[in-house]
Structure formats: structure tokens, C-alpha cells
């Protein structure tokens, strides 16, 4: 079920065995926490959320958001394209859906 996912996630570790070992230790600690019971499971959820947040600066989304910020500073960002306006007007929170304009589909807000 997760074979393809693991293959793509682990590929960068091929050139960094020390990072691969640290990641394996991290997975082991998460596994131990889950096995320890409900409180451990909750701590794993918090750890995963923290990991998602800490990965954000390394993503293309982060780079794109900085470009949007620069467009806003330069006065080149139309309000209808401003993520702050879009999220603020909709009163959205993480996990809620954003109605797609002029279509029947919707996108899920994945980061606040």
C-alpha cells in the first residue's frame, strides 16, 4: 500500500546514510510512542504536525508564497489572488474545504 510512497520519500537518503539512520531512529521512536497507548498516539500526531510545519520552508509552496508576498509588496497582487484575502473572506481553518469558483469541485485547505 505504501511501497511507492516510501520509495519516493526515501530516495534522497541514498546519498546521506547518516540522515537515513536518524530518520530510521525517528520512525522507531514514533512506533514506540504509538504502541505505548492513546497518549502516545496523541504525541505522535503532534510530532507529525510539527514535522509538517518544519518541512514547509523546504517546499515549492514556501517559495511560491514568498513570490506572492513580493507581488503584494510591489502592489502587483490582485485581491482576488491574495491568499490572505481568500482564506480570510472564507473564514477557513485547516481541514476545511475551499469552494472552487465557478465549478462544482472544491480543494482542501492544507496549511494555514
Properties at a glance:
2 domains, 112 residues, two-stranded antiparallel ribbon, disordered C terminus, 5 helices
Layout of secondary structure:
Blueprint lengths: L2 H8 L6 H19 L2 H18 L4 H14 L9 H8 L6 E3 L6 E3 L4
Antiparallel strand pairs: 1-2
Explained architecture:
The protein has 112 residues and is mostly helical. It contains 5 helices and 2 strands. The protein has helices at residues 3-10, 17-35, 38-55, 60-73, 83-90, and strands spanning 97-99, 106-108. It has a two-stranded antiparallel ribbon. The radius of gyration is 19 Å and the shape is extended. Mean pLDDT is 84; it is low at 103-112.
- Mean of pLDDT: 84
Kindly report the oligomeric state of this protein: single chain
Cα separation of the termini: 29 Å
The chain-level structural class is mainly alpha
Q: Name the beta content range.
A: 5-15%
- Counted beta strands: 2
Order of helices and strands: HHHHHEE
Radius of gyration: 19 Å
Number of domains: 2
> Helix fraction?
55-70%
Shape designation: extended
Task: Compose a concise summary of this entry.
By secondary structure, the chain is mainly α.
